[in-house]
Amino acid sequence: MISGLTQGLKFVFNMSTFQNTTSSSIIFLLTGVPGLEAFHTWISIPFCFLYVTALSGNSLILFAITIQPSLHEPMYYFLSMLSTTDLGLSISTLVTMLGIFWFNVREISFNACLSQMFFIQLFTVMESSVLLAMAFDRFVAISNPLRYATILTDLKIAQIGVAIITRGTLILTPMVVLLKRLSYCRSHVLHHSYCFHPDVMKLSCTDTSTNSAVGFVALITTAVVDSIFIVLSYVLIIKTVLSIASPEERKKAFNTCISHIGAVSVFYIPLISLSFVHRFGKQAPLYVHTLIANAYLLIPPVMNPIIYSVKTKQIRRAVIKVLLSRVPMN
């Protein structure tokens, strides 16, 4: 009887300790590419190239817009916002991803994990919002060119920028706060090389229905709503362009949208691909999920500077001018 009582007390004590584990003491383990751990050093090479491309490309565009007075226009202000969010998105995952590939550093504290998750999602939401703002910019420029500068003033653009940051912060803060109230008594191994909200949530041994609902609402009110309004903007743009009598003017108007359409594509196609793989690709190898998840965060920052440099003549000229000014003259 005494033995049974002792075992019962031990069980109660252990359960109490389990449930009351403070979030600050939790250590999560990040994952590189499952099944390919022996090749992490080689895998890091293309990832390093992508990071260098993203960081240098977006920094170059920001610098070119800053120093070139001819680029101090609404379209390029929005492009500078896009480059800023791409820089933030790249930096948010850089340390943990390369830390795993180079040094096999997998540990991350609970608070550091939540901070990384917040900034990754904040910059993702901001990118979606900036793309919507850019769609509105193109609509105004094409449908009402004479009032373009008076509608999108510097003050209005600054207000849009503040609204984008505020929107992302207000939507994502509850997701992070709600994760802190959960108990984590299962495996602490995450399935990505960065902290991902569904990943962290699945490790909880308490009810996560509220967290799932808040996450779903956040997805609907950001990426889904933004994509709908972007499509509506282009419906109105197409309607306006088709009403232009001159074929040459129609072509010119469409050409001003090509870069933005490319940016929208490189943002939403990886996002949709990741969603499909998570939902329907359960039989696919784990490394497929991991590589697509990493590509989802890296493709937009890498491709956006390339798209705008190739397809936008003013940006291409400004970037070339900056590069040539840095070449020492003999």
Tell me what you see in this structure.
The radius of gyration is 24 Å and the shape is globular. It is built from eleven helices and two strands; from the N terminus they run αβααβαααααααα. It has 330 residues and is mainly alpha-helical. It has a two-stranded antiparallel sheet. The termini are far apart.
Give the N-terminus to C-terminus distance in angstroms: 94 Å
The count of DSSP E runs of length 2 or more, i.e. the number of strands, is 2
Give the strand order of the largest sheet, numbering strands 1, 2, ... along the chain. 1-2
Share of helix, binned: over 70%
Instruction: Please describe the biggest sheet, giving its number of strands, its sense, and whether it closes into a barrel.
Output: 2 strands, antiparallel
Please identify the structural class as seen in this structure: mainly alpha
User: What is the element string, with H for helices and E for strands?
Assistant: HEHHEHHHHHHHH
**Shape estimate:** globular
Mean pLDDT: 87
Q: How many helices in DSSP terms? A: 11
The stretches of 5 or more residues where confidence is low (pLDDT under 50) are 1-20
How much of the polypeptide forms β-strand, as a percent range?
under 5%
Radius of gyration: 24 Å
